[in-house]
Amino acid sequence: AGSKLREVFDKINNLLSGKPVQTEGQTVSVTQHPQGLEFVCYKLAEKFVKHGEGEVSFHHDSAFPIAVVLSGIWELHPRVGDIFLAHLHRKCPYAVPFYPARKEGTSMEEYQRMLGYEVHDSKVEEQDHFLKRMSGMIRLYAAIIQLRWPYGNKQGAHPHGLSYGWRWLAQMLNLEPLADVTAMLLLDFLEVCGSALVKQYGIQFWKTMFFIQKSYIPRIEAVTSSGQMGCLSRLKSFVQKCLQEKEIPSPKGILTPSFWRT
């Protein structure tokens, strides 16, 4: 509910503003320790990324309420946004976007960690689980760049708005595609913020979609084996449908004005 989200936002904002906050039966304040504020910014940013790789990866709709709170907090407390990006880029280099290359002397285990895989006791997580986590984090990122906290000061610019999404898309299309990963990330990103990008960039966006269809999808196909076609097929049909209908559908779960009256 919108009212519940406002409560959560106010509590986080009050804590970061140095006000005493009630939690689990005790009162806490960042002023209680010289590094209190820095610690809270760090842990809060880390928590938002964990929401992306956990909650959002399983429930795509949850990207929007989480993102709108983070967007508002980022506006008032830029330090949280900076640390959030640092955590996000470490966990999901594709959010930069960046495909780390394996350097000489780097062990396979260390390289897999650089690529975003979780490695425990030399056991690497399964590909499905890895892709799900990366998908959740990209969806959260794509939701953040288009959302403003509705009760904030609208005078200033979004601290990390749609221009960053436009840049991400352009940089992504300049990278050589990876099997599995690239098709999934492009589809996630376009599903979540394609409709916002088309409103902002119009004809330039449609040119990019046409480029994806004619030039980039064939390059993804060239590196994709027959067993990895699922996500690529979904990306192809999504792009084709959008170009045919000259419309990008609004993402499922987007927060409407009526949400804030709940």
Automatic annotation (TrEMBL):
Alphabetical keyword list: Coiled coil, Cytoplasm, mRNA transport, Nuclear pore complex, Nucleus, Protein transport, Translocation, Transport
Family per similarity comment: Belongs to the GLE1 family.
Main location: cytoplasm
Keyword ATP-binding found: no
BP terms from Gene Ontology: poly(A)+ mRNA export from nucleus; protein transport
GO molecular function annotation: inositol hexakisphosphate binding; phospholipid binding; translation initiation factor binding
Gene Ontology cellular component list: cytoplasm; nuclear pore cytoplasmic filaments
Function in brief: Required for the export of mRNAs containing poly(A) tails from the nucleus into the cytoplasm. May be involved in the terminal step of the mRNA transport through the nuclear pore complex (NPC).
Keyword Coiled coil recorded: yes
Localisation: Cytoplasm; Nucleus, Nuclear pore complex
The name this protein goes by in its record: mRNA export factor GLE1
Gene3D superfamilies referenced in this protein's UniProt entry, alphabetically: GLE1-like
Organism: Xiphorhynchus elegans
